């Protein structure tokens, strides 16, 4: 990505890139559910669902079909918010080939790479908006992007420490020392590969949607196991947590207009034309109106964690760059998330103002050193889209996990049963936590057991 | 600060602001040491200092002079790095007047503000570079800026919850609810006042240095006690820690080109002209050279926490935006810190490239709820410039504090004695921690006892 790219891409005053030569118009991305649900049954959405007009089925993989690490999965479609379930899921084995060595690489280096393949596993959830297309493309594509990015650095991954040069040949005698001083480890290459893969997938989605004249975007939450570590990459408002007997640990953070306020305001500060004079970048407790003019009101700007007062001017009455509170917070009045894939064509209604410059496709990556945990049989990771977390807290989910697993040790499909039970808990006010709200959103859940670590992937 | 300010101030292609009408040339800022050192003695820099040619005195307040909360202080000048001690310190009582009410304010609101003054205390350290002037100006000015900023919001500070309008009058009936939902508390106003005060002080320093044709910048670390809370605001690489019998807690983070890499690279990404074609924003383990051309080397860009490989092009051979490792890391080859006050005129040697757009004058603020701590007699805060932390770890400082205080309960000046002892420990290889390095930098230390909380400020 060349310097000046940002300006060429997003600023109206600068010359636009030459339009892509239009190929034959591509056909729209066909709607589908995850492949591993083929042949699956479904159970009613809640214990008393048969009596309710809005009963929706909870779907999970067919008994007999097992997912990597014997993980469980379940999903439910939203309550008529959209025709399609805008969540998507994918999982599978990740086979990373060693790249072919060119003439430039010496033979000694080859011996550092003893295996022809590195294998890992991959689980991913995508929560779409503005249509199901972006999430479907992400589910079809992101794992390939990741495999490609990992293959491009595989020699660094299998070395004790990533070499300064991918050929393994030092140009300076002190090259290993520089890498050592920066503290660069193999896991930093996996993090870098995940960051690049999200970006590459975002570009693919942009091209494909443009070619098929479709729109939309999606969040992405990905767990990857590789070389004894588990990487959780998140862009959006899905969430992954580790649940153990004595511990609940967050493995991701949400990226919303509220959590990324300062980054978003900062961009509007250095490039005010991105708001086209239609929005104010300042935050106020509520939208201001004429009566507030001349008064001193609470506000904060891009550089502030705290609050202060300012005298209200006319420009402060514009619609706020970030508006609303909690689940209602919106970026430019339009989007509830500030990171994700797609949305290349998304503009504020009736304006030419683009959302994309404020959105990041880059995930935050958390590393869990699974080999260092003293794993117990019922340690699991729960990954779910926001439909689950809107109505259940981390502690409530942990309580449900700990209540369910001990009584279901014999069932080979117990992790999918647990995922279904978690979804059922989002559908009933009298849920097991006793104070439930009901989720009307799409909900998708993976439950990944850590103890077996792949032993279950060949089925039971 | 109007929209577009950033561009007008920093970008060469845009029209420059009209030059300030030159007033009578101001005289240079006179060099001085902190006022509270008047009449102080000094002790040799180390136990064996008399035998060493570089013996430097450790200075602390005269016995009989007490600082707010009976805090201790000591300082030592650097080992001939500069003629002057570039560190500065300030402390004192902070009297915040209630603003006069205008006709717009109703009488009911007055009863919410029962005291004519709010009083607090203030301790500050400034570590200068490029000459002592900026640090002296900051020591002379920042507390006044802070008082002014706090006075501007004092009605909000003394209310149960800051009102939406500074007049206290709701324009919407639901105004209090909006403030409640945002979770805005009185302490957010103090944080906002600290953020604004740093910015205001930075502007004052810029004007004063320009008027007297001087240059330079400084870091700023400030502790403020107010209404039972202690606020620590930091811009730069000084540090404050809380030391208790069973706990060592960081109260600040350092801001250096390394810790703020992504923010700095991001700015160079959206405004490449800030580098004038002379620097590369990419990070490599070492500076690249001709032999690296065409090779794939480790790198990371603004959006990456991890590392990846890229094929080296000619542009990658430019000097890196951030170069060097640890204490040697420099922004644009010039500065070791990425936040602070001043440096308005600072440019990269022999170029027109400004440092200021990459520097932030905004502090990060940590709040310690002192009233909620179960304070013990020897709980203290240690604030010091980087000269101390370069050679002593937090744990070593905590060990020294815990070793010193119990044996010195009777000495009313024990906290200054402790500060002196900490500085002595930076001057001897055989220091009490047994593995000491020697600091050749300026070192300044405040030790603030929390238990007495002002009872000692009238002296013993």
Explained architecture:
The structure is a homodimer of 460-residue chains. The first copy, chain A, is α+β, with helices and mostly antiparallel strands and 460 residues long. The first copy, chain A, has a domain of 74 residues. The first copy, chain A, is 23% helix and 21% strand. Chain A is built from 10 helices and 19 strands. A 7-stranded antiparallel β-sheet of chain A has the order 1-2-3-19-18-8-9. In chain A, a hairpin with a 2-residue loop joins strand 8 and strand 9. The longest helix of chain A has 26 residues. Chain A is globular and about 70 Å long. The two termini of chain A are 47 Å apart. The relative contact order of chain A is 0.16. The interface between A and B is large, with 65 and 65 residues. Chains A, B: It comes from Propithecus coquereli. Chains A, B: One of its GO terms (molecular function) is [pyruvate dehydrogenase (acetyl-transferring)]-phosphatase activity. Chains A, B: This is Protein phosphatase, Mg2+/Mn2+ dependent 1M.
